[in-house]
Amino acid sequence: MIEIEASPFLFQFGSFALSWHGLFSFIGVAAAVFLSGRWAILRDIDPDDIYSIAVWGIVGGIIGARLVHVIDNVDVYTENPLQVFAIWKGGIGLWGGLLGGFFGGAIYCKILKYPIGVIADIAAPAMIFAQSIGRLGDIVNGEHCATATELFFGYIWTDPSSAVAYCLNGVGASVQPVIFYEILGNFFILFILWNLRNRLRPAGMLFALYLTLYSVLRFSIQFFREDNIWIYGMQEAHFIAISVLIVTIPVLFIWGRFGNPETVMKEFSDSAPKLSRAERRRRSKG
Predict the structure, then answer these.
(1) Are 203 and 115 in contact (CB under 8 A)?
(2) Where are the domains of the chain?
(3) Closest Cα partner for 2 from 248, 250, 173, 218?
(4) What is the pLDDT of residues 43-102, one digit of tens each?
(5) Which of 198, 245, 281 is nearest to 95 (CA)?
(6) pTM of this prediction?
């Protein structure tokens, strides 16, 4: 078995505690923004525009991530409502972060007439990579409750302050390495997205594919997790994954079949000048 002995907190000062999950989530988001800015240059989009969009995406992502977590653990937060705002201690829902971040960024793009589909396609590979970075913090924290296992690669958290202490299979129990499963699946999705990044048309298809593949992955892995059961033996993440698939699969088949690739940048061309070749080289080096 794989024993994880580390404390879930990087440091604590009074009532403030910074978790490893929070640190790796920050690193993941920073990496996604940096990579998206670098790749935007190749699509004649100013990286500064990406950074502005990212601010809205991050705000929307934080709100969405915390909201999904609180809804799934409403009984815990009903007893102590102020803990809803203690996000630095951990406790976020990845689905809420992804969808909240998308809507936050999309609203900003709509207001300033940036091409939502193009921006989303640029961000898709960066986002799945960022998710994997964030999940590294989950491994240290013991964030996810999982089913018991006798497999040699099962995870065992031994620190009594680990988040797994609140799980049915708590501290000292060997459980399915669901976090590792997801990281492995994420890199498989990244491989697919990276190889299709310049081949799917019209704009927005790559992002729709990203959400579709991740929905399938998360739906499958969720059966090894022990989150709160909603109905029909399924958990909150199951129903979010199903809802996303209901939207993205028709988008892939209908918009991918009848969408017009020639109008990809039309909404953007009048409001944002393209970068010159010299400017692209300068920014890519800087």
Answers:
(1) yes
(2) 9-279
(3) 173
(4) 888 999 999 999 999 999 989 988 888 887 777 777 777 777 776 555 678 888 999 999
(5) 245
(6) 0.85
**Closest alpha carbon to 171 in 190, 150, 156:** 156
Name residues whose C-beta falls within 8 Å of residue 188's C-beta, 6 or more positions apart in sequence.
none
User: What is the C-alpha to C-alpha distance for residues 67 and 79, in angstroms, rounded to an integer?
Assistant: 16
Residues 6+ apart with CB under 8 A from 209: 124, 192, 193, 196, 200, 248, 252
Q: How many CA within 13 A on the CB side of residue 272?
A: 21
Helix ranges, the chain (H)? 20-40, 47-72, 74-79, 94-112, 116-141, 178-196, 205-221, 236-250, 256-258, 266-269, 277-285
- Contact by Cβ (8 Å): 65, 94: yes
- Given the structure tokens 């203690």, which residue do they identify? 86
21 C-beta neighbours (distance < 10 Å), count: 27
CA-based R_g, the chain, Å:
20
Tokens of 3: 């024993």
* Tokens coding 78: 């009903």
CA angle, 22 as apex, 204 and 238 as ends, to 5°? 50
